[in-house]
Amino acid sequence: MNTYNVLIIGSGPAGLFAALELERAGVDKIAVIDRLPYPAGGLLNDGKLNFDYRIGIDLDELQIDRDEAQCLMEEIRQVFTGFSKCRQVTFIDRNEKIRALGEIAGENGAQFIAPEQWHWGTDNGRAAVDFLRKRLNKTELLLDTTVNSIVRHHEDTFHVICSHHRKKIRYGAKFILAAPGRSGAYWFRDLATKLNIHHNFGPIDVGIRVELNRKFYDDITDIVYDPKFIFLTSRHKDKVRTFCTNPGGRVRPEDYYDFKLVNGDALSGRKTGNTNFALINTISLTAPFSDTTAFGQMIARQFFLLGGGKPIVQRVGDFREGRRSASATFNSRNRHFELCRPTYQATPGDITLGLPARIIDNLWESLKKIDKIVPGILHPSTLLYAPEIKFFDTHFMTDKDLETNVGGIFVAGDGAGKSRGIVGAGISGIIAARGIARKYF
Ligand SMILES: Cc1cc2nc3c(=O)[nH]c(=O)nc-3n(C[C@H](O)[C@H](O)[C@H](O)COP(=O)(O)OP(=O)(O)OC[C@H]3O[C@@H](n4cnc5c(N)ncnc54)[C@H](O)[C@@H]3O)c2cc1C
Questions:
Q1: Which of 65, 85, 199, 428 is most buried by a 10 A CB count?
Q2: What is the pTM of this model?
Q3: pLDDT per residue over 365-379, tens digit each?
């Protein structure tokens, strides 16, 4: 049996940045395990990097202040500036247009955040991963290998039980860093329950993906590639925000075992005539039902059923009139629907059948405000896809090093609720790696 000092579960940005940091700190015998044959996690998706402590980073969750976040972000930025296909797309210094946009947003009841942004595009995803992998000198990659469970062996060692091509393999490890991302979040949560690792339910983000003819949004995205508008809705006092804007991008499905979600990305080389962005409503639940995961899955499964196994899409023109979109009229010229050709073939239908009224109210109120800031967003041809759900909803109680109550097991990344994006995931990986290195030496 091979025994490592540190076994990292997940080769996404959290896992890879943790490995880089452990090597830098002089730790040896490190391995990264991933169930996929190509180690990458979410690094293959789009690759927008937001360098702002308010985006994708929860300072309270990571128990760091703004200055620490800024320093860690700078470390990540330094790494990616060496990757030639990653280019800066939003420049914030002394940008008068950003200041003016902030004022218009404020007048319309929105907070506006314009982070410094870099982008490589889905078509450069593999190059991004290769770039990071080349920086790893000592770390072993155990690919096509799924971690099934973890058991404590001795006071200071764990056994990690995996399967590789149907073969059972056991590895020993002094420290474990679990960074399984969103796709492995519920597997790890079940395992955490068995290991008595303390966790509870955090908030969940539920909403839609909006796709429109890019000419309506270019004036904004030419200034800020991925603009962030945040609203506190008037009736329910809920938080709604725009997220993951893709100028010239595509709407993409995210496949799960028994449902599909919508998401979006953009290529670097080939652009579409559309822009898409997510509009999501943050939901917390309290007694008697606090399981935000089950709530999100229930919504997703409902759409799966209503859409015949696909997400649903509705034209704004139909939504306004309270009717479902239908295949026969989906591209109606009379109604100017031809102005936005969908980049993903979802099922034409009625999104109000699948989302709770409170969420629909909040999303529509916010869309009307965005339409005042960016006139044209609510053109009848604009497409509303559902469901877009961000399952970052498991919260692990950890110390400042992201170590759980079970000594020797650390967590990082989206799957553990420690980040919401590539930069945040990388930061949490670095924090955990530093914690492990301190305990190791
Ligand atoms: C379509 C799309 C577009 C996106 N665009 C952006 C963007 O532009 N900018 C941005 O910041 N974020 C974006 N994201 C989100 C981003 O991908 C994630 O925030 C980020 O990858 C999280 O990193 P992570 O390391 O926590 O997890 P991940 O990157 O998800 O990596 C986790 C890894 O763990 C592995 N794993 C899980 N369970 C096991 C197990 N039991 N055994 C072995 N391996 C396991 C998985 O195979 C996976 O490779 C996008 C996501 C999607 C889906």
A1: 428
A2: 0.93
A3: 999 999 999 999 999
